[in-house]
Write a structure and sequence with these properties.
The chain is mainly α. It has 9 helices and no strands. Helix 1 packs antiparallel against helix 8.
Length: about 190
Amino acid sequence: MTSLAMYDVLYSFKDIHKVILEFAKDLTEDQLHWRPRGYSTSIGFHLWHLARESDFLIAIILTRTPQLGPDFGEPVEIWEREKLAEKWRFPTEASATVGTGMSDEVASTLPIPPKKELVDYLQRSYDAVECFVERLDERYPNFDNVEDELKRKLMNVRLNLLVFLSHDCRHLGMMECLKGLQTGFGSATEKRK
């Protein structure tokens, strides 16, 4: 049954997540790691950043909004729970960040993992966002009968979800540009055989 949430961000998240994941699955390892000369980030960096941001978003919302309750999940990032920084040998100064505000020097040296591992992390982070939004829409389709403090928090959560939706779209554009620089074909160009 469709919820009557004040917005349909779940559909939009599922749509952009599908586009990004399909884009990522079509990449070669070389395309994933390639950077233009003088540029600090690769498509792999953008995919990692999207996974980290989504992972962080849900954990921080759950930490700051304990009123949601345990059925929304634990406020622990996949990144922390699975010790991905250690597994992927991220430098100490980069292991606790999501990539925002990171210096170009640090960003250019991140050991982006192989595509399969990276896409798996991205998929699981996106699944967590979608599951969270679905639960939120089911439990709070509107602000009726919600106490003022929780209402303010829910309004902030919904705003942050919309911000993250546009964030994913911006990074998709960056990744499409980087792929276009490598292949000569952008997303709006018909692929020639």
